[in-house]
Write a structure and sequence with these properties.
Layout lengths: L8 H22 L2 H6 L1 H23 L7 H11 L3 H10 L6 H32 L7 H31 L3 H21 L4 H11 L6 H26 L2 H6 L1 H25 L5 H11 L4 H12 L5 H31 L19 E4 L3 H12 L4 E5 L2 H9 L5 E2 L5 H6 L7 E4 L4 H14 L4 E6 L2 H9 L3 E4 L2 H14 L4 H23 L5 H20 L4 H15 L1
Parallel strand pairs: 1-2, 1-4, 2-3, 4-5, 5-6
Helix pairs in contact: 1-9, 1-10, 3-4, 3-6, 3-12, 4-6, 4-14, 5-6, 6-13, 6-14, 7-8, 7-9, 8-9, 12-13, 12-15, 13-15, 14-15, 21-22, 22-23
Length: 563
């Protein structure tokens, strides 16, 4: 009860459910069919297996103490879902979203968000079936539900975009915000009137608008309200958790929390290992992030209570189990990370590939975005090259597309000898890590001084370090920035020949500046002074290119500005 500042937490919970509705709308906006198709194997394969295996195991255990099959089914599905908000936040804080287990976790969470929609839609129908003591929902409920879904889909397909175009012409932020809220709340209301979950209508509306020109505008207007109501939702959930339940049945609650975490962890270990393509360490990290219950579990069990599928006492117990499992997740993740650090991987690391190409003219170290383009250009000219890549995943992907590539660390002398670097003419260094890049360049220059090294540089400091080794440097964003700058000048009405001339002049000026700054790059004061001097020189250089009439006009403009 706490301080009893809120007399009825259920009223707050009912009002705050709009936060979950808005969350589902935003999920729909981000779920374009094209994106889902690319991730289909991990989403529907790995994600589906995790949800259904976990739900089946939990439902089987729940059936030992709960009568019938509908309630255990709802319990199993509700506890099989993990927290999207907590899981993604933990992965983002640890910078693990782009890791192997991070991508698999995202795919699983995406499937859980998808499966939550039909689950929430089915609960009221299961409740109606139970009330009538039938094994299937009544026909009239099904017809009304299907009609409501069709109304939302057809209306969203043919009306929403036209409505938003009309609103956009008003050029009013307030009107567009009100319209965005109307879209979300209106579709939720239609579903609620049909006896389905309000979130289903919001999700469908989001999917229908995912590829519209209003997607990002809608998300930006809904996001503040979503954050506010979702925060209120979690507060209401906290107020709804009956602390007396823990005091009255501590052993039951502890067994529920530990059992949930252990069961889902075991399922995630197996799924990540055998269908997600993860090794044991990555599977453990996956399990630590997703073994908890999730916010959709609160919604599922609240809907189950409304539909008469579960009792209030059981709902309170499930709420406590989910809440404690979410609270324990950061601690579990820390414990797993510490254990992995203290126990280095016992699995055998992948050995470098045997290289059967004995007469390369070029060696490409790093076959990612940059190295692949260089390789394609060389292949088009029928110039033999050997590609080395330290990422096993990148090697496997490239081989699926028919590229002959070898796995191994190009900074290892034995691999360079196996690649017959002594017979090559050029060494192309495109690895992404600046430190590894410089380390490889230093080794190549020491072992094979005859090789001409062309190296990719991330920034000026990286370029200076490579220039110390007498490598030919190409800054990875410099030339694309020149192209973009020229296009911007053309868009602003600068004549094509002048834009081309200015772009080339800037390129020459900056490359000369790079060579001058290389001599003083370890002296920060001299480097800053050099940059300021170069900026003034560049302005003078461009002013000298103006015609006499243009120069006079600029002088008159400056004089007018001064007055």
């Amino acid at each position: 009860d706490g301080l009893s500042l809120v007399p009825d937490p259920d009223d707050v919970l009912a009002a705050s459910e709009i936060g979950v509705v808005m969350l589902l709308f935003v999920i729909g906006l981000e779920l374009s069919p094209a994106r889902l198709w690319v991730m289909r194997r991990k989403v529907f394969g790995t994600g589906g297996l995790q949800v259904f295996v976990s739900a089946a195991a939990i439902a089987a255990i729940a059936a030992l103490g709960v009568d019938g099959w509908k309630a255990p089914l709802v319990i199993g599905m509700g506890l099989a879902l993990s927290s999207t908000a907590v899981g993604l936040q933990l992965l983002a804080e640890r910078k693990e979203l782009t890791t192997e287990h991070g991508r698999v976790a995202f795919a699983i969470l995406l499937f859980q968000d998808l499966i939550a929609i039909p689950l929430l839609a089915a609960i009221p129908l299961l409740g109606a079936a139970k009330a009538l003591e039938r094994s299937a929902p009544p026909l009239d409920s099904v017809v009304i539900a299907v009609g409501a879904i069709l109304a939302v889909v057809v209306g969203g397909r043919f009306l929403l975009r036209h409505l938003l175009r009309v609103v956009a012409r008003a050029n009013s932020v307030e009107v567009f915000t009100a319209s965005a809220l109307l879209v979300v709340v209106g579709n939720a209301w239609i579903m609620d009137q049909a006896g389905l979950s309000m979130g289903l209508g919001a999700f469908l509306a989001g999917v229908l608008l995912a590829e519209s020109e209003f997607r990002h505008e809608l998300e930006s207007h809904i996001e503040p309200f979503k954050g506010l109501f979702l925060g209120l939702f979690f507060i209401a959930i906290g107020m709804s958790i009956d602390l007396d339940v823990i005091g009255e049945q501590p052993a039951l609650i502890a067994a529920g929390v530990l059992g949930l975490l252990a069961l889902k962890l075991a399922v995630l270990l197996a799924v990540g290992r055998f269908t997600g393509g993860l090794d044991l360490r990555q599977s453990m990290q996956l399990g630590a992030v997703l073994a908890m219950g999730g916010e959709f579990g609160f919604v599922v069990f609240a809907e189950g209570l409304k539909a008469g599928l579960i009792e209030p006492v059981l709902r309170d117990q499930l709420f406590v189990v989910i809440g404690l499992s979410m609270a324990a997740t950061p601690l579990i993740l820390l414990a797993v990370s510490r254990w992995l650090r203290e126990h280095p991987s016992a699995e055998k690391e992948r050995e470098p590939d045997d290289i059967d190409h004995e007469h390369p003219r070029v060696i490409i170290a790093g076959f990612g975005r940059v190295g692949q383009i260089v390789g394609r250009m060389l292949r088009a000219q029928k110039i033999p090259f050997t590609a080395l890549e330290n990422s096993a995943e990148q090697v496997d992907v490239s081989r699926r597309f028919g590229t002959k590539i070898y796995y191994g660390d190009p900074a290892r002398p034995d691999l360079l000898r196996a690649a017959h670097a002594e017979r090559a003419e050029v060494f192309v260094l495109t690895t992404d890590d600046p430190d590894a890049n410089v380390r490889t360049a230093r080794l190549v220059k020491r072992m094979y001084p005859h090789l001409k090294v062309f190296a990719r540089a991330r920034n000026r400091q990286h370029a200076f370090r490579l220039m110390d080794l007498d490598a030919e440097v190409t800054r990875e964003t410099f030339h694309s920035s020149l192209v973009m700058g020229r296009k911007v000048m053309l868009a602003l009405g600068v004549p094509a020949d002048e834009a081309e001339r200015n772009t080339e002049r800037f390129r020459q000026h900056d490359e000369q500046l790079l060579r001058r700054q290389h001599l003083v790059y370890d002296d920060e004061a001299a480097l800053v002074a050099s940059s300021q001097e170069a900026l003034a020189d560049l302005e003078t250089l461009f002013e000298a290119d103006l015609s006499p009439d243009e120069a006079a006009e600029d002088e008159r403009d400056d004089g007018d500005a001064g007055r």
